């Protein structure tokens, strides 16, 4: 998914996607949904069996994810989901603050009514997922909200950088968050979008800053990494075979 399209949309079109793109999209979403926790070993053979593709295709997908820094490929030991240290977590959020500020300013300038309406639908979907207790889906939709804001900026390099930071943020939250509820408060998303639609740059940037600070306030830097079984994570793929 190298263009400025959401993984939600790509999932619906996955039938026409190249095989390595499909694998990439599934793993990327699993990271966003925190079904693949930090430190999870990404066994090429197991993934090949799950997705019914060759190890070459798996390696291409893992390489793309490593370029986004959400997967670490270790020589002679295989790939694992990245497990950010406390210092790395702090650096990610420093970068996130800077990036989100730039994205928000450009979104105020470039946002279209169609894009704003799409984001409002994402917020509704996130709200429904939260009420239904599907926190994994709610977290993914929250990540999609921030990716769509980056798309709204009209700046492709910012969008690509944001993909990496959103994924890394999800890993950090999975590793260090204290609360079990979704990290993005729905009212904060709605308020931010209202300010963007109103072309109020100062208010939009303030709300974004407060939103990120709220996410950070819920992190416990003494958190521990958990592990996961690849066949359980991708049971939805296996059930379709």
UniProtKB/TrEMBL annotation:
<keyword id="KW-0805">Transcription regulation</keyword>
<keyword id="KW-0238">DNA-binding</keyword>
<dbReference type="Pfam" id="PF00392">
    <property type="entry name" value="GntR"/>
</dbReference>
<dbReference type="GO" id="GO:0003677">
    <property type="term" value="F:DNA binding"/>
</dbReference>
<dbReference type="GO" id="GO:0003700">
    <property type="term" value="F:DNA-binding transcription factor activity"/>
</dbReference>
<dbReference type="Pfam" id="PF07729">
    <property type="entry name" value="FCD"/>
</dbReference>
<dbReference type="InterPro" id="IPR036388">
    <property type="entry name" value="WH-like_DNA-bd_sf"/>
</dbReference>
<protein>
    <submittedName>
        <fullName>GntR family transcriptional regulator</fullName>
    </submittedName>
</protein>
<dbReference type="InterPro" id="IPR011711">
    <property type="entry name" value="GntR_C"/>
</dbReference>
<dbReference type="InterPro" id="IPR008920">
    <property type="entry name" value="TF_FadR/GntR_C"/>
</dbReference>
<feature type="domain" description="HTH gntR-type">
    <location>
        <begin position="17"/>
        <end position="84"/>
    </location>
</feature>
<dbReference type="InterPro" id="IPR036390">
    <property type="entry name" value="WH_DNA-bd_sf"/>
</dbReference>
<keyword id="KW-0804">Transcription</keyword>
<dbReference type="InterPro" id="IPR000524">
    <property type="entry name" value="Tscrpt_reg_HTH_GntR"/>
</dbReference>
